[in-house]
């Protein structure tokens, strides 16, 4: 039996991640356009698109590929983990630094976003502390550290989001209070935050209600997107941290909507 060399596997994975990011940013892309952009043959692009379509990272169509709708994207935890990594890490660092300059972080909350998940390793300099979250990947990461008092918010487990939602989770959040909430949203437009899931939107509002400081962490791909369920206004956050890839016009619109914008440099 023969196996593909590890370097080739990693190169394929990196290229496919970049293809998924490229298509999602543009909405659509042609096969010949992708071959030129990534310096590979059209046959290689066909194989890449077949793989990305199979795992739900995009939709392969006759002429090329289309980005998945916002709802399909938000329900794919693996896609959310790999896209815009550098941007998510940058906004997480900037958000934690901003909050730690303003409040003694003894209790923090993390929502079920992969952006807030990047806050987890940054909390090491603030231990011991209490962390409240409904996100299973964060619960798994934090549960092994004895210096963390973990308050895992239970409820109805939703595999698509890898998180706990529903009335029980909302009631649990009403009984706690924390210094800082680190949160993200899948869509932000006209000064408002949206989510494709009604249950997730309700829980994010409950997270906000129990926070002393509210920090919104978003990468620029979330801006100028919409989903069906409104969460809140951007002005409801104490700071909105976004990476430097944000369009200048969208930056101005957020400020006009009352957002306190902090641009995180990668």
TrEMBL record:
Gene3D superfamilies, per database record: Winged helix-like DNA-binding domain superfamily/Winged helix DNA-binding domain
PROSITE patterns linked to this entry: HTH_DEOR_1 (PS00894), HTH_DEOR_2 (PS51000)
Pfam families xrefs: DeoRC (PF00455), HTH_DeoR (PF08220)
Domain HTH deoR-type: 12-67
Lineage of the organism: Bacteria, Bacillati, Actinomycetota, Actinomycetes, Mycobacteriales
Organism this protein belongs to: Mycolicibacterium obuense
One function term, GO molecular function aspect: DNA binding
Keywords carried by this UniProt record: DNA-binding, Transcription, Transcription regulation
Identification of the protein by name: Glucitol operon repressor
């Amino acid at each position: 039996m023969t196996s593909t060399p590890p370097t080739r596997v990693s190169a394929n994975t990196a290229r496919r991640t970049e293809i998924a990011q490229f298509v999602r940013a543009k909405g659509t892309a042609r096969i010949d356009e992708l071959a030129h952009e990534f310096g590979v043959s059209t046959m290689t692009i066909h194989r890449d698109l077949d793989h990305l379509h199979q795992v739900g990272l995009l939709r392969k169509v006759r002429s090329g590929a289309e980005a998945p709708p916002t709802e399909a994207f938000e329900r794919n935890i693996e896609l959310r983990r790999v896209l815009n990594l550098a941007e998510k890490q940058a906004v997480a660092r900037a958000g934690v630094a901003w909050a730690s300059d303003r409040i003694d972080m003894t209790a923090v909350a993390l929502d079920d976003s992969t952006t807030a998940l990047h806050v987890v390793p940054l909390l090491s300099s603030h231990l011991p502390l209490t962390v409240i979250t409904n996100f299973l990947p964060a619960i798994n990461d934090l549960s092994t550290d004895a210096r963390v008092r973990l308050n895992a918010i239970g409820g109805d487990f939703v595999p698509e989001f890898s998180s706990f939602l529903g009335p029980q989770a909302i009631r649990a959040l009403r009984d706690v209070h924390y210094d800082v909430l680190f949160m993200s949203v899948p869509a932000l437009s006209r000064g408002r935050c949206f989510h494709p899931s009604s249950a997730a939107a309700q829980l994010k509002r409950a997270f906000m209600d129990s926070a002393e400081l509210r920090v919104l962490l978003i990468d620029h791909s979330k801006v100028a997107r919409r989903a069906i369920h409104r969460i809140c206004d951007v002005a409801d956050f104490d700071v909105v941290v976004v990476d430097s890839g944000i369009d200048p016009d969208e930056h101005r619109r957020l400020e006009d909507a009352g957002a306190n914008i902090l641009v995180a440099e990668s």
